[in-house]
Amino acid sequence: MKFNKKTGARVAATAVAAALAMGSLAGCAPAGSNTFTVWWYEKGTAMASTWADALKELQKNHPDVKIKFELKTWDQIQKAGNAILDSNKAPDLAEWNKGNATAGTASQAGLLTDLAPYADKYGWTKSLPSSALVYGQYAKGLMGSGNLYGIPSYGEYVSWFYNKDTFDKYGLTVPKTPAELDTLLAALKSHGLIQGFGGGDYQNVHMAYALAVSQADQQWVKNFQHFDGAVDWTKWEYAANKIAEWKSKGYFEKNASGIKADAANAAFEAGKYPLILAGTWLDQDVASKAKFNWGKFQNPGNLSVGSAGNLLVIPTRSKNKDLAAEFINLVLSTKYQNELGNAGGLPLLADQAALTNPVTVKSYSVFDAIVKADGLAMYPDWPVAGYYDVQLAAGTKLVGDGNAAAYVKTIKDFYDKNKPAA
Predict the structure, then answer these.
(1) Average pLDDT of span 47-76
(2) For position 184, which CATH number holds?
(3) Scanning 196, 234, 370, 399, which has the fewest C-beta atoms within 10 Å of its C-beta?
């Protein structure tokens, strides 16, 4: 799934300098009772700078503890993370990729601590909505239920970006329902305007799922993502038929199946299109390039494409589990959630009134409403391996030929063939 980290507002030097002040960046010496070893692979992001500041506060609160920060890479965790967790070089706390193949395998192998006692102590299960906590829950290696092995502290989502100047010019309003979205697209068309759509790229995958989950609820998500029950494929039929309908009415370019997402995004930023569906990774880009007033709104309906971010975990071999949990609680505190937002990230638990970063203010207002409504629906390619390529190809074909039935058959057949046996 397309995912670019563009939420960071500070350079990597912030996190690295803080880390150097607290301990060596190199080496994997075993942690002792007096040494607290921390891993993460955030670099140059809002998370990196905020977590570094929280780590400094932890050091201040525990001056007798030596804090050893080790900057890793995503590739290191992906390739050798579990092996290191299963050794005496395991850290006391680490950032870990969410998902079955990463946190799932580590939890199934007994390498991660069940955080339920700490969640009870600090109230994490009360402060974080279930649609955020689900990314840290695993049963037999499958994300979505079971013990709590990781805690997210930030998020991401897909929504509509729009040109406020164009909306004001024609007296258009932000749609609140799927029917109002149809009305908006028709009104834009009447003025010779259409949405931007990279229909030959990941945007068709996002678009189809956004339309599907606009009609769904969290039980549907559990059935589709976690195989908790039979999938109601009429939600996907609605999505495919809606894209076919928009194609027939000319609500996006005739050659949209040949347009890449980057080209569509750039055209929106240049003012060619007044509307485009995209993820939060586009926030900073739009802010730096658009010469018009812009805003965001949730795709109308029940749920939204998106998820909580990667996890903070406590390895089973951690020698300082209580300190690790204290650090996680610091990161989830209003103080650091606000800092994360003002550094350009997308916090889960910030005080919206305290956010001053103009880009975050625009993005967080939408995200906060989604999170409070328990409205995160994950990403469509997560359930089975290889699903993204199938969805992308089927979606590109749908945007080109408008054959909704063929699209649904393709993605359903692949899903049914590759899902775990009952």
Answers:
(1) 93
(2) 3.40.190.10
(3) 234
